[in-house]
Amino acid sequence: MSRPKKYSDIDFRPPQEIADLAAKGLELRKQHGRGGTEVGVARARDLKNRENLSPETIERMVSYFARHEVDKKATDFGNDEDPSAGYVAWLLWGGDPGREWAERVKEQMEEKDAAAE
Questions:
Q1: Nearest to 2 by CA among 51, 44, 48, 53
Q2: Is the dihedral of CA 3, 36, 17, 75 positive or negative?
Q3: Helix 38-48 to helix 16-32 angle, to the nearest 10 degrees?
């Protein structure tokens, strides 16, 4: 995956904590048969494997979390025994740590973009 040189000092590899939450989301989806789309499953696999993500993927993650914040209000969000579909999907994208990490990486990208202007 080629990345602009201006981003060369930004780490696009998800931390282990995010990989673990994505793996948990995949397992809960398998156990309960709900939560997430094929895109979410693909994202979880990349996160679980700690793949270096593209700048576009980081932006998609930030957008996902902004759109799906409301899912956290659902009954059984956070219930590992009988999880809501939204909870499973949230985990597939790395959970709260995934959101914080993606936002932090996006901020770093924006700083580099501004400095390059």
A1: 53
A2: positive
A3: 140
